[in-house]
Amino acid sequence: MLEIGREKVKQKGLSGKIELLEADSENLPFPENTYDLATSAFGVRNFENLNKGLSEIYRVLKPGGRILILEASEPSNMPFKKLYKAYMSKICPAIGGALSENKAYDYLNRSVAAFPSGKDFEAELVKAGFADTSFIPLSMGVTSIYIAKKEDIGK
Length: 155
Hints:
By secondary structure, this protein is α+β, with helices and mostly antiparallel strands.
């Protein structure tokens, strides 16, 4: 995937501005207070150690920097939650397995079910040092956007 991404960056003439690299989320190869913004889409759920990964992101953000995370979550609305669980546990793995012949869709269901969502994930952000946390449920809670801030040093 990195090679495909690098080729796209090169084709768009952005090689001097964008560098794609592989790194461990729990040991980022960047100095403290480097970035204004950190983003992740459907990746934080896969951190081996959630607190350590979030703490590392906190470390590399500048004071006042923000984190934006788009992540899958289980909906809380009861009628929809039951439909969602049936879809994720039965239909999605069956269709996905038939199309891809692997167990990725079984993993998707398990990882979403195990991931803290909503207020529980906000608590994880606070535990890692973040403040001003909020979240926005999307698609009836199937995904959520989490927003948090690294406090300014002067506060």
